[in-house]
Fold each of these.
Amino acid sequence: MNKKVRVSTILKKKADGIKITALTAYDYTFGYLIDEAGVDLILVGDSCGNVCAGHETTLPVTVDEMIYHTRSVRRGVKRALLVADMPFMSYQETIEQALHNAGRFMKEGRAEAVKMEGGAHICPTVRKMVEVGIPVMGHLGFTPQSVHEFGGYRVRGKDEQEADRMKNDAFALQDAGIFSLVLEKVPSKLAKDISESLKIPTIGIGAGLFCDGQILVSYDLFGLYDKMNFKFVRRYANLADEIRTAVKNYCDDIKNSDFPSQDESY
Ligand code: KIV
């Protein structure tokens, strides 16, 4: 096994100009497969609400559900830095609420960091978390927990006012102590600007080539979740079709009395 990835490793990669690789995972099996393949950072994303639970948005996901997923992934992950996503309304009410829930992700989920969506308004919370020893990853651009406020899935930061606000939010989050920043669905030029101005690394998803690293929802990369098609997703496999074919072949074999064979029987 290569050396364990820590927050300091992620920061050093930016300093050394080495791209950071990141992917989501939601259970033990995918956790160990993705970890063994050598990804730097594994995010237990609240996108599990979409791809595992079948919700239309990430909003219904609860802290208890996220902790279950985090604990499952944790058992499989040895090398990568494990980050847990804080779900909608688990950190927005009060700093005390945010600290309590982040603490659960670290203690019960054995995550090594948490991720929160939002800009300057979450900085007092970020500051407090960092103060007590909880590393925080930020998330700007299209932040899925605000889908209803945004009124859809459009790219964020296209106009000057929105772009300026995003840059200010990025600096404010860096000052508050985040160790990295996800930029989702942001024009490539704006993501490049932000990445070049920050000391901490940016991790892009639909934010072009010039971020310091890239992340995708693993089910998208595997071609496992094929209900939505985003322009920024590259499918490296087509597991959905492979699974459909495997299940069909299995059913055919049962119906034709081809399964189980003698070798597969006691
Ligand atoms: O929940 C998630 O999977 C995420 C990534 C898209 C960054 O937040």
Note: The chain has two domains: 7-235, 239-266.
Amino acid sequence: MDCLFCKIISGEIPGKKIYEDEKVYAFYDINPQAPVHFLVVPKEHIKSCNELTPENAEIIGHIFLVIAKIAKDLGLEKGYRIVNNCGEDGGQTVDHIHFHVLGGKPLSWPPL
Ligand code: 5GP
Ligand code: ZN
């Protein structure tokens, strides 16, 4: 499958890995938008939030637990932001569902 994040997970394309288990993979974003900016993705290729089903949605809870663990390990005790861009208007550019985690400074809101 011609998917950038599947290739990073398999090691075909190099990525700066932070964490991996049997279900998820976490790596630093190549174009960081905050002092700390990493991505957490399921190893299963799910295109976006719109392709979640009762059968595969359990992974999202696991991803949030992994995010909390990594955030603690990286010293983000003052907080962080989790972002999921879904579809064209949501700004999704890689069609493999992923959660951005941004932190390391106070973040502005709203993001528009
Ligand atoms: P999206 O815009 O789909 O929500 O997020 C895609 C993210 O993937 C962007 O923040 C972009 O910087 C990141 N990205 C794109 N290509 C690569 C790459 O080859 N390696 C890594 N580590 N991140 C990438
Ligand atoms: Zn993929």
Note: The pocket of zinc ion (ligand 2) is lined by residues 3, 5-6, 45, 96 (CB under 6 Å).
Amino acid sequence: MAQAEQTLNEALAAFDFGRPAKEAVRFGEGHINDTFLVTTQEDRRFILQRVSPVAFHEPKRLMDNVVNVTEYLSQEIARQGGDPRRETLTVVRPRRGGTCFTDSAGGVWRLFLYVEGTVCYQSAETPELFAASGRAFGRFQRLLRDYPAETLYETIPRFHDTVNRLQNLKNAVAADPLGRAGDCREDIEFMLARERDCSVALDALRSGELPLRVTHNDTKLNNVLMDEETGEALCVIDLDTVMPGLVINDFGDSIRFGANHNAEDEPDLSKVNFDPALFETYTAAFLGEAGGALTEAEIRYLPWGAKLMTLECGMRFLTDHIEGDHYFHISRPGQNLDRARTQRKLVADMEHCWDKLNAIAARYLPNQA
Ligand code: GN1
Ligand code: MG
């Protein structure tokens, strides 16, 4: 039995669902936390999650971030005439109070209302869908532009420190605990050859060229709930990595995941192609909502965000593959290597159309309007 199932009943008892829970089933496609959909006898639904102890070392502080940010978003959404119960996550507190429940094995659980009438997509099936997610993350950025970023706890230190991620890869290759590095020489070489790129965004932050903001840090299409009826993006989810960061990274992570027509773990690389038209679609949608909040430098660096997030994610998947798949959940052997290879192919594609990507971003500079 997986760790989470062993204490699931304890967690179910810790929360008040209004009516008894009749079912709790595994849910979603996240790689990190253990997620269950709970249905009560009245058919009310909730999302119950065990926070990954591998990824997050201080889950209670993480929950403070989540509660503070969702309460802030909820007020802003209400002020602007929206529906906070559908347009942001709502944390349901445990019977004993606090923001989460700790089980007898030390696992930390939290509960959210399930947002009814929504769907979640694993790939950008249509450009409209991708644009909708861009509006959602652009709006997220705009709603939080006055939130004091420095009050947020850094849930994963150095999360998007690409230089450090490369160092972790080098360490994994040197240790090579399972003898896997030999089979991914070319992948490793590809990452190492881009060592100089890794510091581009961090240098711009250090020099003050790029500002620190409240960022989501996991802006995949599947972290946006879409309204089943209207098809419009409704609610940004997965707030575990909301922390101070760079807006170009939020933009870039969306591009990494969505500006292509393949699954993140597609084994057949001939099907993996970066699509600059989708880059343009997303840029227009994202900036349409968040644009006014961004500086010129942030707009100019958007292509770097795309390339660096893709490169970094590739390095993380490759590192985890070499180290024995401790971090990203896998459902088949070699899945993290396949994931690393799709990222590598996407980076190579982006490099081929680098000038074009910069020209697209430049069109959105204020004096180009
Ligand atoms: C992880 O759990 P999930 O799928 O939302 C990861 C992201 C990666 C992503 C790759 C906390 O997110 O950083 O980009 O997988 N989250 C964490 O799919 O490490
Ligand atoms: Mg996530």
Note: The domain at 3-116 is CATH 3.30.200.20 (Phosphorylase Kinase; domain 1).
